[in-house]
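To the structural biology subgroup,

Please find below the input and predicted structure for Flagellar P-ring protein, which we are adding to the shared reference set this quarter. The sequence is reproduced verbatim from the submission form. If anyone notices a discrepancy with their own records, reply to this email rather than editing the shared folder directly, so we keep one authoritative version.
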Amino acid sequence: MKHYFQNLLSALLLIVLTIPALAGPIRIKDLVEFDGVRGNDLVGYGLVVGLNGTGDGIRNAPFTEEIMSNILERLGVNVTGEQFRPKNVAAVFVTASLPPFSRAGGQIDVTVSAIGDAKSLLGGTLIMTPLNAADGQIYAVAQGTIIAGGATVEGEAAAVTQGVPTSGIIPAGARVEREIDFDFATLDTMRLALREPDFTTAARIEAAINASYGRSVAVMLDSGTVRLDVVSTQARSPAHALGRIENILVEPERKARVVVDQRSGTIVMGEDVRISRVAVSQGNLTLRVEETPLVVQPNPFAEGETVIVPRTNAALEEEPGLGLAEVAPGTSLSEVIAGLNALGVSPRDMIDILKSIKAAGALHAEFVVR
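Predicted structure (tokenized):
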């Protein structure tokens, strides 16, 4: 019964995923990235305090003692030569992303992750931590109470952990102290980088922008780039030009692609996937080896010793699988999956069948295995 419901759920999932969706127009800002409009990664090294005995072991994480000494000395506490053995502090890495056009005084979210042997950051407080960008400059300072997404329960002989208690977030936990030096208003041309490069989609974006202005202001450079001439748009600034074109609707094209996840048995595919004429046969071979040793005892009052006689039972079984089946040319993959579901083929066996069809050159799509 359990396998029946698993196969039924998998069949329903695959049927839903293979229903041809009605293609619709998408906004340009959902298809491209605008040149210069990007975030910047920040990272810092700090200390979390206030943990309930779940912090770093100082002997196992000497860097925790070093940063704690530095912080105390900056606060005017002389700790030279002292020995620390606290269990309520932990050394952490603090990461964040500085959004484009962030201004000084703004607040951003940060992620805090333990780097020592701390067991949990639940309830801890991050001490003021500067966040640096790739150029080594400080762009934000983080501090606040950590919200951890896990929990740990321990006993003398067992422990149970749910989630990841050694990592957490601080919403609006960093304040921007320095702005990115970028004069966006002086740009004369801008590049629109497609998230999914495609010549047809790029040509449609070019045509849609030019049709909106009634003249040639956009040029497709390649499958992933469309150049916009800001001067030709006669807009007051590049921001005004992007504000006008980013909501223009374009119907994108996409490659035929099949994505499979072997760990979960998930199969996702597009509606444009096609299969040439091919024959498929699938079956399962099971080998069982069972050891049942026999102990032989000597007769009473007889000279001898106990002997263990090996006994091995080996069996080779072939479970009934998919017989030889032929797929007609031009058949969509959704139709093949529906047929395999009707035959009761499991998702993992489907993945093996799809791999074999791709290896035979009959699956006309990009095949991605995760």
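Summary notes: Confidence is low (pLDDT under 50) at residues 1-22. Residues 2-20+257-290+318-369 form one domain.

Regards,
Lab coordination
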